[in-house]
């Protein structure tokens, strides 16, 4: 009994330390205004992103070798950043086209490193669609979703350790308790992850339209991904992103609310520029 009480006391200390650490590490996001639980400073996010970008690129076949398309993706991404509220951040954004021709995906590392695979790029047909992809990923960076996710993981790990210590008298019980605790932690993270994705849609909409792109590009992106999903196994992009059909409805609602008289004609789709970049790439290869 004494051993059990000691284990419970130590377990409670682990849990208490994790909870205190999580709930005291709070910052107000200067762009979104959201009060967030984060585990990294903006500077630490930048360093993490810079250190991780090479290793991550290697997992997708490295960078696409054509400098024309690399520069084009970077140009569109920087326009989305520099012409919107994202320019107020201290993150040095950098946009990369990955060589992988099969995995349809796009993602961002904390600190401003943004990636899109060639498999996804090949499904696009306008600059506005590309701006929608990049704007969404910029939204993840500005929203500090990576740092929030890491903070939740650290809290979850502390609670898992606390349960494991308390139940460690029987290894099988300890393992089962840890599995249950980890499952709960994953469900919590999944819930917040989907909320992050929807927030990135909203931020991406704001960033791309401020940069002069038509929000139709973001809606069309979701439709393209939905179409890819109906043909068999879903693209990797959808494994962490909510159902594109639901997102189309939400985006349409945002467009109607923002532009009750219709999308302004000065917001570009950029189909010709996109086609020219693709054509230039094909002529050089």
From TrEMBL:
UniProt xrefs under Gene3D superfamilies: Metalloproteases ('zincins'), catalytic domain
Gene Ontology cellular-component terms listed: membrane
The keyword Zinc is annotated on this UniProt entry: yes
GO molecular function, one term: metalloendopeptidase activity
Ranges where the Peptidase M48 domain occurs: 70-253
Binding note for cofactor: Binds 1 zinc ion per subunit.
InterPro entries named among the record's database cross-references: Mito/Outer_Membr_Metalloprot, Peptidase_M48
Stated family: Belongs to the peptidase M48 family.
Protein name stated in the entry: Peptidase family M48
């Amino acid at each position: 009994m004494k051993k059990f009480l000691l284990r419970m006391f130590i377990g409670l200390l682990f849990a208490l330390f994790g909870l205190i650490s999580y709930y005291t590490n709070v910052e107000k996001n200067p762009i979104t205004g959201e009060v967030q639980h984060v585990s990294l400073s903006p500077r630490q996010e930048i360093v993490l992103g810079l250190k991780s970008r090479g290793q991550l690129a290697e997992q997708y076949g490295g960078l696409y070798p054509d400098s024309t398309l690399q520069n084009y993706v970077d140009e569109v991404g920087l326009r989305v950043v520099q012409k919107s509220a994202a320019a107020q951040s201290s993150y040095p954004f950098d946009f990369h086209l990955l060589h992988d021709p099969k995995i349809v995906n796009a993602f961002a590392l904390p600190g401003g490193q943004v990636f899109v695979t060639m498999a996804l790029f090949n499904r696009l047909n306008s600059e506005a669609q590309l701006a929608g992809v990049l704007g969404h990923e910029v939204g993840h960076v500005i929203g500090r979703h990576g740092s929030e996710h890491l903070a939740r993981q650290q809290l979850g790990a502390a609670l898992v350790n606390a349960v494991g210590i308390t139940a460690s008298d029987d290894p099988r019980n300890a393992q089962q308790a840890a599995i249950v605790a980890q499952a709960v932690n994953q469900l919590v993270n999944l819930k917040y992850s989907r909320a992050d994705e929807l927030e990135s849609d909203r931020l991406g909409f704001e960033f791309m339209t401020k940069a002069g792109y038509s929000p139709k590009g973001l809606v069309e992106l979701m439709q393209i991904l939905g179409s890819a999903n109906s043909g068999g196994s879903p693209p990797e992009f959808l494994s962490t992103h909510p159902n594109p059909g639901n997102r189309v409805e939400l985006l349409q609602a945002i467009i109607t609310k923002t532009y009750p008289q219709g999308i302004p004609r000065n917001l570009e789709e950029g189909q010709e520029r996109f086609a020219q970049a693709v054509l230039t790439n094909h002529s050089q290869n």
